[in-house]
Every structure is written in C-alpha cells, then in structure tokens.
Design brief:
The chain is of the alpha+beta class. It has three helices and three strands. Helix content is 42%, strand content 16%. Helix 2 packs across helix 3.
C-alpha cells in the first residue's frame, strides 16, 4: 500500500522560503493562512534547528531566510 504524504505548515513555509530565498513574515502569514504570532512561533522552532533565520530590517520588518539546514530532514524525535 502506498503511503500518503502529509504536508504541514512547516513544510509549506520551508518550500516558500526556498522558492523566494527570503520572505516577509506578512507574506508568510498570507501563504500559510495563519496569524503573525503562529507564523513566528513556527519560525522560532525552525530557527532552533537552523532551518531558517529570522532577520529584522532597520524599519522593523521581519524577514525569514533559509538557514544552513534548510535542505536537511528533521526526524520527529528532534522536534
């Protein structure tokens, strides 16, 4: 029996960042249909694993960029 692939919000965010090389958190909220607080919580978790970086512009915008581990797989035990 073939396995179905389940796509999470984290998967969608990582793919979006890979495509764009960096995204404003507001664009991520639209893409994921999540509020800013939820996206930032997810981003912080991914940042802990060096999957993405959270950067701030001089005018206070939050930019999410690819981290050094963006192409590595994280097992369930690591989360």
């Amino acid at each position: 029996m073939p396995y179905a692939k389940i796509k999470t919000s984290a998967d969608t965010l990582v793919e979006f960042i890979r495509e764009k090389k960096g995204v404003k958190v507001e664009d991520a909220t639209t893409k994921l249909d999540m509020d800013k607080e939820a996206v930032m919580t997810l981003a912080r978790i991914l940042q802990e694993h060096k999957i993405l970086e959270i950067n701030y512009t001089i005018d206070g915008e939050i930019i999410l960029k690819a981290g050094e581990n963006i192409n590595k797989v994280i097992t369930e035990e690591q989360i």
